[in-house]
């Protein structure tokens, strides 16, 4: 097992993890909007994408290749399916890790129908040989299939029907410029505002036949870390609590009680997040402290702390990464109800925080 696998397994157990498990995939399929009009949030992306698709339909042409970047759970897969539906085209779904050889990609490309949408999730994790084959396929709708080995190897050109590639990535910076430049439309998915998540929750509750009051939806939205997938997952867990402990109606009090059981606090932090902050504050006085030392104090792998807990803590302004180590911000002390020592408020820790 490699370190990435360890981090992934730890994240998979978290209610506020933005990755999708099998239950999420099944529920998302039922809740997924079918067209751009139903899609909530990402206003600019929806407006721009609507123009791209309308223009392609008016020309009777295949839509340009589309690159969607952003954190997990924001709707990249959903948008790919909407693109196919808007273009009245079939969709083929695969992922970068599944394409480790150029032959894997050639087999997929050679079987595409004209106008078909190929959704390639985590495109930055595709192998380099396959990536280089994709350059020609995207630009010229052609691939060269190598037959044989060594000096006798022969390249056989294979013409492809026009298709639309929709690439999705959580780490756009890892895409090489030649690949990124071949996309006709690039969009970055932003985290959702609480009011947008409330709309997502009300829509999902209606489809799941769940009764929910406005203040209950607001409470769930506020703990969903700006991510629709997490909002829908929390909604399902609060629904379970309401059915077992109450009359099935989700109110603010019911949502608060349910999420307290699942250890998701008012800002969306869970046990791991709070464990990292508590270790940083109580054991190390707010820092600076090295990542490895912090991970040992929490009892987690270094990669788990760095890849699973830290991104949200940094985005919330509760933790800062500095050259000397991790430093807690004043907001972290306030969130846990702790009083910072004088050195954390005015001394070296604060100097590190502001990079002085």
UniProtKB/TrEMBL annotation:
SMART domains: AAA (SM00382). It comes from Streptomyces lincolnensis. Homohexamer. Forms an RuvA(8)-RuvB(12)-Holliday junction (HJ) complex. HJ DNA is sandwiched between 2 RuvA tetramers; dsDNA enters through RuvA and exits via RuvB. An RuvB hexamer assembles on each DNA strand where it exits the tetramer. Each RuvB hexamer is contacted by two RuvA subunits (via domain III) on 2 adjacent RuvB subunits; this complex drives branch migration. In the full resolvosome a probable DNA-RuvA(4)-RuvB(12)-RuvC(2) complex forms which resolves the HJ. Belongs to the RuvB family. DNA binds at residues 302, 321, 326. This is Holliday junction branch migration complex subunit RuvB. ATP binds at residues 31-32, 73, 76-78, 139-141, 182, 192, 229. Keywords: ATP-binding, Cytoplasm, DNA damage, DNA recombination, DNA repair, DNA-binding, Helicase, Hydrolase, Nucleotide-binding. CDD domains: AAA (cd00009). GO terms for biological process: DNA recombination; DNA repair. Residues 193-263 are annotated as: Small ATPAse domain (RuvB-S). Residues 1-24 are annotated as: Disordered. Residues 1-10 have a biased composition (Acidic residues). The RuvA-RuvB-RuvC complex processes Holliday junction (HJ) DNA during genetic recombination and DNA repair, while the RuvA-RuvB complex plays an important role in the rescue of blocked DNA replication forks via replication fork reversal (RFR). RuvA specifically binds to HJ cruciform DNA, conferring on it an open structure. The RuvB hexamer acts as an ATP-dependent pump, pulling dsDNA into and through the RuvAB complex. RuvB forms 2 homohexamers on either side of HJ DNA bound by 1 or 2 RuvA tetramers; 4 subunits per hexamer contact DNA at a time. GO terms for cellular component: cytoplasm; Holliday junction resolvase complex. The gene is ruvB. Residues 266-356 are annotated as: Head domain (RuvB-H).
């Amino acid at each position: 097992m490699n370190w990435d696998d360890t981090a992934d397994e730890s994240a998979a157990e978290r209610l506020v993890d933005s990755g999708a498990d099998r239950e999420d995939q099944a529920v998302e399929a039922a809740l997924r909007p079918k067209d751009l009009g139903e899609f909530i949030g990402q206003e600019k992306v929806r407006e721009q994408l609507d123009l791209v698709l309308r223009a392609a339909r008016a020309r009777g042409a295949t839509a340009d290749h589309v690159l969607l970047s952003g954190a997990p759970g924001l709707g990249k897969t959903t948008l790919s399916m909407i693109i196919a539906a808007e273009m009245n085209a079939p969709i083929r779904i695969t992922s970068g890790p599944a394409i480790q050889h150029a032959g894997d990609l050639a087999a997929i490309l050679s079987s595409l129908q004209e106008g078909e949408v190929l959704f390639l999730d985590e495109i930055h994790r595709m192998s380099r040989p396959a990536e280089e084959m994709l350059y020609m396929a995207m630009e010229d709708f052609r691939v060269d299939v190598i037959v044989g080995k060594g000096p006798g190897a022969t390249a056989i050109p294979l013409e492809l029907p026009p298709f639309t590639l929709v690439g999705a990535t959580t780490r756009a910076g890892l895409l090489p410029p030649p690949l990124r430049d071949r996309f006709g439309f690039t969009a970055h998915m932003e985290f959702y505002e609480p009011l947008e998540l409330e709309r997502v929750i009300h829509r999902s509750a209606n489809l799941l036949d769940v009764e929910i009051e406005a203040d209950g939806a607001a409470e769930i939205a506020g703990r969903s870390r700006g991510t629709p997938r997490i909002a829908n997952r929390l909604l399902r867990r609060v629904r379970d609590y309401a059915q077992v402990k109450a009359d099935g109606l989700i109110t603010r009090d019911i949502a608060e009680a349910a999420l307290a059981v699942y250890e998701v606090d008012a800002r969306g932090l869970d046990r791991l997040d709070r464990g990292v902050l508590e270790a940083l504050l109580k054991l190390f006085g707010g820092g600076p402290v090295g990542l490895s030392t912090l991970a040992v104090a929490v009892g987690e792998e270094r990669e788990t702390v760095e890849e699973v807990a830290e991104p949200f803590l940094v985005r919330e302004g509760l933790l800062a990464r500095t050259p000397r180590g991790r430093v807690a911000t004043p907001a972290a002390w306030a969130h846990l109800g702790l009083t910072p020592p004088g050195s954390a408020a005015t001394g070296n820790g604060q100097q590190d925080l502001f990079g002085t």
